Amino acid sequence: FQITVIILIIYDLLSDAPEGNELKIPPGASEAVITAQFLALIITVLTQDDVVTALEMADHGYHKGIMESCPSATYIKFIFANFARFGEGILTIVVSFLFIVTSTSVLDIFKDFAAVAFISNLDNLAFQLAKRGFITKSVQKDAKKVETATLSEGNTTTKSQCKLLIWNTPFHRLKIRNILFGITSVIICLPWVAIRAKQHLGYYKSLSCKSLTVKFGDETLALADGGTTLHYAYFSNNYKIEEKNKRFKLEGDRPVYYERGQKEWVGERAPGKFLYCKDLQAWAFTIEDVWPRGNSSSTWKACENWLLRSPETEVYALEEVPLQGWSIWTGITDTAQDFSLSCDECSSDIDCSLHGQCVESTCVCDKKWLGQRCDSKIPCNELLYTNNRCSDYEELPGFVLLRDENNKTMEVYGRPVFAKLDTSSLDYNFDQDDYYLDDD
Q1: Are 352 and 361 in contact (CB under 8 A)?
Q2: Which residue, 128, 118, 54, 61, is CA-closest to 90?
Q3: Residues 115, 95: contact at Cβ < 8 Å?
Q4: How many degrees, rounded to 5, is the angle at CA 78 between CA 74 and CA 80?
C-alpha cells in the first residue's frame, strides 16, 4: 500500500513537466529555502531506516533452521519482505528529494516532508492496530508474536519465539549503518548541488512565462530635469525575458524582463524593464538613466530608481506576483491604477481562442484572425481619412494594411500595421522588433 501511494505521488509530481525541466525545478531559491533544503536532506537520510534495515537483513542472510519453529517463514517470504522494505525506503527518499528540490518556501519543505514521513510509517500504524485487535484475533496473535521476536546469534531456535538466525555484533551493525549513511548522503546531496548550480546559471526557465503583456494606467511623472514628463502608459508593451545560449539573465536570482525583449536603447529612448530587487524584497519597474527622485549619486542603480514596485514577495516569476498592492511613483508613492500584466504564451489551442494553433507556446493564428490570442478579426484593407479644417472638404491619401510576401497580415504586438502610401515607389520591409521604410 505504501509503495502504491508513493508511486502515485511521484507520478503526480512529474506529470505535465515542461520540456527540459522534467523535475519541475523552480528558477531559483532564497537563502532561507536553500538552508532548509540542505537540512531536510540530512533529516531524510537520518530518519530513513527501512533501507538500512533491509540491507542489514540481507547481510545477515536466511537460515533454513528457522522453519523448525516458524514453518511459514519461507525463504521466498524473507526475500520478498526485505525487497519490499528496501524498495519502499528508496521510493520514500526519492519522493522526499523531489518535494525538497521543488519547494519555494521553508514551510512547504517541512510540510511535505511531514506528509512523506507519515506515509512511510503507515506500516507501523497498521502493526499497532493489528496488535490491539482491530483487525482479527489471529492477526493480533501473530502481531504479538512478532513483537516478542528477537535477533540472536548461533544456530538454535526456540518454539516460543520466532528468532532469526544471524551472525551479528554491535560493532558490525554500527559499521554497516555508518557506511550506508555516508553513501546515501552523497547520493542524495550530489544531485541537489547540481540542481543548485543550474538554478544559479538560469537553466530552469521553463517555469517562467517568457513573454508578458504589461499595461499601465494614465499616471504621469514630472522628472527632476524640470522639462520632461514621463507618461507611464507609453510603456504599456510586451516584455520578454532576456535569453542567451538557452539561459536567461538573472538579477536578484530571478529573470529580467525587457520591453520587447530589447535591452538596447531605441534612438533616445531606453526600454523599460522589470527585475527583482533583493533590498526591496519586491519586483520593480525601471528605465535606465531615469532618476525619479533626483540624481542623488554618481551611478544610476535600477533598484534605487524604481518607478513601479510590487508588494513584498519572494515569487520567482513576474506573472505570479499579485496585481493588488503595486506602488507607483508620481512625485509621491501612490497606488498604481489600472496596472495589469498577463502571460502571452499559450499552452493549448484553447488559449488561441480556437482561431489558431498553439505552436511552441505561441499562437499561430488562422488566416482571418490576429492578436496574441487570435481574438481579433483582420480589419479592412484600407483606411481613409479626411481633413475638414480647410474651407473645402478634402479627402487625403489613406493607409493600407501591410502584408508580407505570403499575404499574411503584419503585426506588432498582436496588432495590425497600416502604412500611408503616397507613392508606389516605396518598398516596405518589416520586422517585429525593427520595422522601417526603404525609399527606392
Answers
A1: no
A2: 54
A3: no
A4: 115
Mean pLDDT across the chain: 76
pLDDT tens for residues 232-257? 988 888 888 877 666 667 788 788 89
Cell of 53: 534495515
Per-residue DSSP letters for 362-421?
Answer: EEEE-TTEESTTS-EE---SEEEEEE-SSSS-EEEEEEEE-B-TTSPBPEETTEE-EEE-
Backbone angles phi and psi of 234, in degrees to 5 = -65, -20
Using the 8-state DSSP alphabet, how is residue 105 labeled?
Answer: S
What CA–CA distances, in Å, run from 256 to 16, 243, 393? 26, 9, 52
CA gap 58, 37 in Å, rounded? 32
What are the residues facing 272 on neighbouring strands?
287
What cell does 58 get? 540481507
Identity at 281, one-letter amino acid code: Q
Helix 106-120 crosses helix 31-47 at what angle (to 10 degrees)?
Answer: 10
* The C-alpha cell that represents 35 in the structure block: 538552508
Q: How would DSSP label each residue in 139-207?
A: HHHHHHHHHT--EEESS---SSS--EEE---HHHHHHHHHHHHHHHHHHHHHHHHHHHHHHHHT---TT
Q: Which residue has the higher pLDDT, 141 or 415?
A: 141
- Sorted by sequence, the CB contacts under 8 Å of residue 75 that are 6+ apart come out as 62, 64
